[in-house]
Amino acid sequence: MPGIEEAAFRGMNEMHAFLFRALRHAGAGPEPPTVMGLFSALLGNASEIDTSSLEEEFSRLLIKDETIQHAYKLFRDLIVFTEHRLFLVDKQGLTGRKTSYTAIPYRSINTYSVETAGHFDLDAEISISIKGRPNPITLEFKRDAQIFDVYRLLGHYVAAHG
In what order do the strands lie in the sheet with 77-82? Predict the structure, then answer.
């Protein structure tokens, strides 16, 4: 029941709410969380996920004969690659019930870049410039080797559709 979950969040400060969501997220799915999975979720690291777990959620979004090729989970958000498009999924709000799906055809991507984490700036980023959009979309990663996997996949699909 959403009312109970929202009431639980009201009594927490921001850090407690973050940890609660991370613990709940790490335990989601058919298998119990591993220690590394828990730390990964707490740190906001991206991890590749089984694409079959997204079939139901994406069934209304995909066009005929389009399938999910690769997917990465970044805390609650998703980066999803299909044959034709890149989906950026933003789970919003305290409960994550409100969801924003952004579909970007690979042929609409002008440029993309990667910025690695430094000593003081612990975040790594991929920036994607889209035709007709004044500002790039930025995907933030926490000092994570998976950023290069996502970057390579992005390069593969943009090159194939360019």
Answer: 46-48, 68-74, 77-82, 85-92, 98-105
Nearest to 148 by CA among 105, 116, 111: 116
Side chain identity, residue 10: R
50, 51, 52, 58: CA torsion to nearest 10:
140
pTM score, two decimals? 0.70
Residues 6+ apart with CB under 8 A from 147: 46, 114, 116, 124, 126, 141
Q: Do 112 and 33 belong to one domain?
A: no
How many Å apart are CA 154 and CA 160, to the nearest integer? Answer: 10
Check whether residue 67 and residue 84 sit in a common domain: yes
CA-based nearest residue to 81, from 114, 113, 54, 115: 54
Whether residue 30 is found in the same domain as residue 87: no
Write the pLDDT tens digit of every residue in 149-161: 999 999 999 999 9
The separation between CA 93 and the C-alpha centre of its own chain, rounded to angstroms, equals 15
